[in-house]
Design goal:
This protein has 294 residues and is of the alpha+beta class. The protein contains six helices and 17 strands. A hairpin with a 2-residue loop joins strand 2 and strand 3.
């Protein structure tokens, strides 16, 4: 290990969020919701369910752990996982599908850079469905940060934008746009995802939160301490890991070395190397070429 940490380098613009893995006590509690209300394709393999968009892009993996306790109110973990659709019409169709399934929204917001619908799955996991407005319409602030806000969204106007082409399933091009985490220490987690992995802070538009991204995106990772979580993740239900997908082996090597020189342990024994953030959430680092072959 080098005695001196390498300079904090920006992640490649092609960096993206990949699969998100969540532990539940019973797959039958969540799979019908994601298939019928969200529109996911579902592949079952024993105690694992893999959920994808219509083009086969895997979004979520649910791991069944019978008897696993619920996530304690004090534990860090998932605030929401955000599924990004490619355009406003697709999000309008997703809203119609939610209404057909009788799903209840917990919120709907205009964030200036995006329009978003919020809900909670039957296992208590937060979920966002959103689409981005064109990047050229985003307002850039000093230092390259992105102007964001939380304004009321006209859901009836959004529903009217649907054209029916994505009414039955999540369409091709759908992916995981970002993950938003509840953490115990905003500074420690911000250092891990920022100085450690290499994401840049893009916004701190609300108190007690920080948003980080690569390539000038509004955010790939959100962090907040709003609910005063005080314990690391444990062997309970909830988020177990998510992927930060890197474009090539060289960019992954830089990230892993930077994490190690900053005192974070990297596990290279699995097929895909990973590191745990300060709250014990596993972050895996696949390379895009190998990830696309899965």
């Amino acid at each position: 290990m080098s005695e001196e940490a390498p300079e904090a380098a920006a992640l490649p613009a092609e960096t993206a969020i990949g699969r998100v893995s969540i532990r539940v006590d019973d797959l039958e509690r969540v799979v019908p919701f994601y298939r019928e209300a969200i529109g996911c394709q579902v592949e079952r393999d024993g105690r694992t369910a893999r959920l994808s968009a219509d083009d086969g892009r895997e979004l979520l993996t649910f791991e069944e752990a019978p008897g696993a306790p619920g996530r304690p109110r004090s534990a860090a973990g998932l605030f929401h996982v955000a599924i990004r659709l490619s355009d406003r019409a697709s999000l309008g169709d997703a809203l119609a599908r939610l209404r057909d399934a009788g799903a209840t929204l917990s919120g709907a917001s205009d964030h200036l850079v995006s329009e978003a619908l919020y809900l909670t799955d039957p296992a208590g996991n937060g979920l966002e469905l959103y689409h981005d407005r064109p990047r050229e319409s985003w307002t850039r602030l000093d230092g390259g940060r992105v102007e964001m806000d939380t304004l009321s969204l006209d859901v009836d106007d959004l529903a009217a934008a649907g054209d029916g082409t994505a009414r039955e399933a999540l369409p091709a091009g759908t992916d995981v746009g970002h993950v938003h985490l509840e953490v115990t220490d905003l500074g420690a987690s911000g250092d891990f995802y920022g100085d450690g992995i290499g994401f840049a802070t893009t916004s701190q538009y609300v108190r007690g939160a920080r948003f980080l991204a690569a390539g000038g995106y509004h955010h790939h990772v959100g962090l907040n301490v709003w609910n005063r979580r005080s314990e690391s993740v444990g062997d309970h239900q909830g988020l177990s890991r998510f992927e930060v997908v890197l474009p090539d082996a060289d960019s992954r090597r830089v990230v892993l070395e930077r994490l190690e020189t900053r005192g974070h342990e990297v596990d290279r024994n699995d097929d895909v190397p990973w590191a745990a953030d300060p709250d014990g959430i596993r972050v895996a680092f696949p390379v895009r070429a190998s990830r696309d072959e899965d």
